């Protein structure tokens, strides 16, 4: 069974992209012009009619589309061109559930529509599941391309980043983690965990929209170099020996080389991929950087990365609880940035 879609019937196509984009975190939107037939087999979650409803062609088209949906199941949100008595009578005659002014902001149109189609809790889960799906596809595509020595598509990857922030902002970190736990692949699960933690942290410290995106992007991609680590080491069911650990540690430089070759990745993302295992006291790898040589962005991702690794299930040890994982982070003393660790702690408690 296909997922239900939102249908946006419009005679103002210049507005439709914004409304479709506002719906996108929760539901796919199909835009239909007044003269186009509806031929898609997907069921309708509901209809938004951005048309002049007093016109007979508009009324007729809306009525026909409503007949395609199960009565009562697919609400109709009508964007009204004016507030005349005739307009409201026509809106009533086609069974509009909600009438909004035509100039209503696209995100309000989307919120109104989704409030009708989904109970709040269900909507949050749907938003998170879709975000995980998009981010996961972006990440898997990148990992597969890296493994196969194919070129990396930066633009396609980018589409997976923003939904993570929306999902964590709307649904909270706890629900994000709940859903991420249900995935099997360890590298995939780990990257999604780190991305969710980074999103919660970026939201908590009040980063600008562009800084939030940068941080989550670099979190999602930080272990891309693991695509080049032999699977028998990557998926070893026990602890790595010294030789295997040496190979595993090359993933930072390998990931950096992959992104340099791909071109199109910003300097901050490259910095995170190369240096997320550096420690402030110089004990990290690959370059043994110390103190100020390690950027704040890298310090933040390092904290998210270690916390994620501690709470993950490993074949050779049980996952740690939240409190125990935080105690381990604090016990690392001068290796991690104390102020940023305090912010991280607040961010994950808050969410
Ligand atoms: Fe790593
Ligand atoms: Fe990692």
TrEMBL record:
Record flagged with keyword Transferase: yes
GO MF, any single term: phosphoric diester hydrolase activity
Gene3D superfamilies (UniProt xref): Hypothetical protein af1432
One Pfam family matching this protein: HD_5
UniProt entry keywords in alphabetical sequence: Transferase
Ranges for domain HD-GYP: 165-351
SUPFAM superfamilies: HD-domain/PDEase-like (SSF109604)
Domain of life: Bacteria
Name the record gives this protein: Phosphohydrolase
Species in which this protein is naturally found: Methylobacterium brachythecii
